Amino acid sequence: MGLTVLVVGGGGREHALAWKISRSPLVSRLYAAPGNPGIARHAECVPIPVADLQALRDFAVSRKVDLTVVGPEAPLAAGLADLLAREGLLVCGPDRAGAQMEGSKVFMKTILAKYGIPTAAFRVFDEYDDAEQYVLTHRLPVVIKADGLAAGKGVAVAQTYEEAVAFLRDVMERRVFGDAGSRVVIEECLAGEEASYIVFTDGTKVVPLPSSQDHKRIGDEDQGPNTGGMGAYSPAPVVTLRVEERVHRQVFEPLLAGLRKEGITFRGILYAGLMIENDIPRVLEFNVRFGDPEAQPLFLRLKSDLVPLLLQCAQGKITDAGMEIDPRPTVCVVMSSGGYPGGYTKGFPIEGIVEAEKEDGVVVFHAGTATVDGRLVNSGGRVLGVTAIGDSLKGAIDRAYRAVGKIHWEGAYHRTDIGRKALRRGAA
Ligand code: AMP
Ligand code: GLY
User: How many domains does the chain have?
Assistant: First the structure.
């Protein structure tokens, strides 16, 4: 008898997880809660929302789930791993204390400062008047962050004092993110190029995935408002060997040792959002889960089985030396609904996925899709992650866009420049 695994979540990252986990010879049964129509090709989807922690626990207990893999941060911050652990169940994902690395910017920045980990200089405020006074003396641009989880919208990089004060008011006075805005971090703006660096950890040992880079803005050339991520590729050339070595020595080693001193053994996935300038990495943020859409191109490069590492993280003892990575680069182009990241149009039939997947080396991951009356329709902001591997980055980009060109629904949108920054860096 193989393992029974439960994937929690229903987006593109979770489809990539389910796709990869379903290929493991160790797994005989795979569930996803709530999953999506793409995930349903690899797993049995159960209609439990990620916010219903008790129902997730009861399901895992009754189905004797051997390993739960949590995709999104919210259930971890709410204590899902603690609930499962209390039942003696294995979970890849930190407990509530560890999840504060993403759930509280104040906690995260305080830990970074305490253990000397490179990050933007900052101050914390819990009174609006003090925060406003400080912001008005800070040089521009100034970065303001709501303390708690705000679905990626809790950060402003303000170019003017008007903008800074307006955001501060929204967060601390109007409480547009609720209690997430009871405290703020105000920090200096860092220059450089961003990259994502994601590792598996048992609290001491670290096994890294290759580097990757997200595209957070909705428009080409990084214009327009922030989104959940409009595309990603791996590797990110800005993460040189030197950067990688520094990230291990200056970030992960002191961080995990620091967390252990604080009584936190972090078991799961740690994602460092980095700003890199002249080979010097500084931490912008931590996430306590895989990136979305970074997981999609990363798992397409992963040749070895993902399950042993997930299991070892959950057990708190990583014994694997590493994993086998395809040297070829991968690219994921996100297709989104018309109007996203604002109010978007949905319910339109999606055509062409089967044709797109006939393209060599292409996998189409579902994010915001649903089946209505037997037809696949768009149902979320980010709808599909069209992911391709190629002999070169250019080859992977061309393949991904050829596949994107075959997929249609009313209002569908995508960026046309995913990976271009890396191509430019390669040419330079
Ligand atoms: P965060 O959620 O902290 O990663 O912030 C979201 C985005 O805001 C990041 O991906 C960056 O593009 C930007 N950002 C955050 N902090 C800074 C900073 N200190 N300097 C420059 N940009 C930042
Ligand atoms: N792609 C950004 C994130 O997963 O937070």
Answer: 4
Last residue of a domain, one of 290, 315, 340: 315
The verdict on 8 and 69 lying in the same domain is yes
Q: Domain holding 85: CATH number?
A: 3.40.50.20
Does residue 66 lie in a domain region?
Answer: yes
62, 46, 42: which is closest to 8 by C-alpha? Answer: 46
Q: What strands lie across the sheet with 193-201, from one edge to the other?
A: 206-208, 193-201, 268-277, 280-287
**Among the bound ligands, the one closest to the CA of 276:** 1
Beta bridge partners of 336: 382, 413
Task: Show the tokens assigned to 254.
Answer: 């002191």
- Whether 364 and 409 share a structural domain: yes
Residues 6+ apart with CB under 8 A from 298: 16, 198, 209, 210, 212, 234, 290, 291, 330
| Atom 3 of ligand 2, residue of closest alpha carbon | 291
Closest CA to 368 of 310, 411, 397, 330: 411
CA of 152, closest atom in ligand 2: 5
Give Cβ neighbours of residue 3 (< 8 Å, ≥ 6 apart).
26, 27, 28, 29, 66, 67, 307, 311
Question: Which residue reads 């990575």 in tokens?
Answer: 325
Q: Could you list the residue range(s) of the whole structural domain that residue 9 is in?
A: 3-93
* Cα-to-chain-centroid distance, residue 261: 26
Per residue of the chain (428 residues), give pLDDT as tens.
Answer: 899 999 999 999 999 999 999 999 999 999 999 999 999 999 999 999 999 999 999 999 999 999 999 999 999 999 999 999 999 999 999 999 999 999 999 999 999 999 999 999 999 999 999 999 999 999 999 999 999 999 878 999 999 999 999 999 999 999 999 999 999 999 999 999 999 999 999 999 999 999 999 999 999 999 998 899 999 999 999 999 999 999 999 999 999 999 999 999 999 999 999 999 999 999 999 999 999 999 999 999 999 999 999 999 999 999 987 899 999 999 999 999 999 999 999 999 999 999 999 999 999 999 999 999 999 999 999 999 999 999 999 999 999 999 999 999 999 999 999 999 899 887 66
Residues near ligand 2 (Cβ within 6 A): 214, 229, 287, 291-292, 294
Could you tell me if the CB of 142 is within 6 A of ligand 1?
Answer: no
- Please give the Cα distance from 147 to 171 (Å, whole number): 10
Question: Which residue, by CA, sits nearest to atom 5 of ligand 2?
Answer: 291
Say yes or no: 307 and 338 in one domain: no
> 412 and 356: one domain?
yes
Between CA 310 and CA 10, with CA 14 as vertex, the angle to 5 degrees is 135
